[in-house]
Write a structure and sequence with these properties.
This protein is of the alpha+beta class. It contains nine helices and 16 strands. The strands form four sheets. The protein has an eight-stranded antiparallel beta sheet with strand order 2-3-7-8-11-14-15-16. Strand 15 and strand 16 form a beta hairpin.
Length: 298
Amino acid sequence: MTLSRRRFLAITAASVCSGTMAQARSHSWSGRAFGSDVSIQLSGPRDQVKLTLDRVIVRMRDIEHLFSLYDPSSHLSRLNRTGRLKSPPPEFLRLMGLCSDMHTATQGVFDPSIQPLWAALAQGKDTSSARRAIGWDRVHVSSEAISLAKHQALTFNGIAQGFATDLVRADLYREGFGQALINIGEYAALGGPFTLSLSDPMHGHLGTRRLTDTAIATSSTTAMSLGKSASHIQHPITNAPALWSTVSVKTNQAAIADATSTAFSVMSRAEIRQALSHLPVGTEVTLVDFNGDIETLS
């Protein structure tokens, strides 16, 4: 799974193709969160949109403070530093549960305990001890506390952005909005349709995808290197190299799309098909190989 702060996102908004959106006033906001450019396109009365966006920005900062590796006071940083987090917040527990679901669905390839391996690669150190520390099954979770095994550390960089995207979309829905495009590192649509452009860092533009009440996430293995040559997406179980240049997953939750687009980058076609049986009906996976050939599994 990817552990980079600057996770490559090969999806960019191209246009909005909705009659209701064309008739309503659309407002946009952009900024930074989770180490990435983020944006929200929201349709509604200007005053209502402004108040809502102010609340969304606070909401994003609160979520970031839970899961950021780069904030030493975040809940995740405290867990990694001490090996134990007492009375974890409900949203922290929700994300841990979702990580367990994605770990199971991907046959263990999605594993947030891969953080020591990424750190070793980034620092040019030997990775043997780091690999021994990996193991989601040794992370103990309860409402009272979360505990890590010796030498373990977690990262949520392969799922937290999608999780935040889903939370913001749910907030907007509860406030009565029917048309929004949320980008917090991954894209989620409220209403639609929205047309997005899919690209690969090696092969450029590859086509478009349409979102209506769905989400999409993209991972590209060549977007960033650790050390001299290691990809920022690593297999937590084996030393197998990445099998795909870009993987894009479209499904009903951005967190699921986020986690699986990362894990699928180092999984075979057969393994991905098996994982799809554990994912929501209608999930679509776009695979781009290193020659630029594209196929879609569903």
